[in-house]
Amino acid sequence: MGQITVEKNVGGIEGLCVITPKVHGDSRGYFMETYSQRDMAEAGLDIEFVQDNQSCSTKGVLRGLHFQKNFPQTKLVRVIIGSVFDVAVDLRKDSKTFGKWFGVELTEENKKQFLIPRGFAHGFLVLSDVAEFCYKCDDFYHPNDEGGLAWNDPAIGIQWPQLVGEYKGIASAEGYTLEDGTKLNLSEKDQGWPKLENVFQF
User: Fold this and answer.
1) pLDDT band for position 201 (cuts 50, 70, 90)
2) Is 167 a catalytic residue?
3) How much is the pLDDT for 2?
4) CB neighbour class for 118 (10 Å; exposed up to 12, middle 13-18, buried from 19)
5) Fewer beta carbons within 10 Å, N or C terminal of the chain?
């Protein structure tokens, strides 16, 4: 693991990892390896990624909480411009931490990466004026396979930083802002996701 440091089972949730690459910098700038299959394998993370994705979002955008129903994906996510608060929620039926969440701030400065195994819901909130978000997946995108959960479900209880507002029983962004007054911005689909108890019943 010469080029990365791996913090495993973050937040007490098995499988979640925060990965910090070694950055080589001088007065000219910096260089780092953003991904090495060898270093990952040495860390016990033997994953075959097949697709890279990238998105750009403005401040106050919240994407999530998304999961794949029949074709789950492991994701390795990072930010190349700006800052986001990235969240994973454990949806594995037999997990001792089912329904528990963990969040980490990913920024262009800290260059941290968040490894989210299969069986989790995922989402992020943009804290900077603009954020460019990149992630690797170990399965291809399958249309019509996306599921979702309400980003503000009190049963999950995610503590989104800088966010103020009052929960009104639905996933609507109405009435929510960041501390500087920026309105929370969600897609119509993301404002319609149900609560955890309405999706997973045991």
Assistant:
1) low
2) no
3) 79
4) middle
5) C
Catalytic residue among 30, 35, 66, 167: 66
pLDDT-based confidence at 1, cuts 50/70/90? low
CA distance 117 to 85: 18
Judged against a pLDDT cut of 90, whether residue 199 lies above it is answered with: no
Hey, what are 67's tokens? 């999961």
Residue 5: name the closest of 109, 17, 103, 14 by CA.
Answer: 17
**What does R_g of the chain's alpha carbons equal in angstroms?**
17
User: At which residue do the structure tokens 């396979």 appear?
Assistant: 145
pLDDT at 33: 93
* 71/145 Cα distance (integer angstroms): 7
- 24 in active site: no
Mean pLDDT, the chain, rounded, equals 95
Quick one: which of 95, 113, 187, 103 has its CA closest to 148? 187
Name the active-site residue from 35, 135, 141, 142: 135
**Alpha carbon distance 16, 31 (integer Å):** 26
> What per-residue confidence (pLDDT) applies to 202?
42
Distance CA 161, CA 32 (A): 28
Let me know if 147 is exposed, middle or buried by CB neighbors in 10 A (0-12, 13-18, 19+).
middle
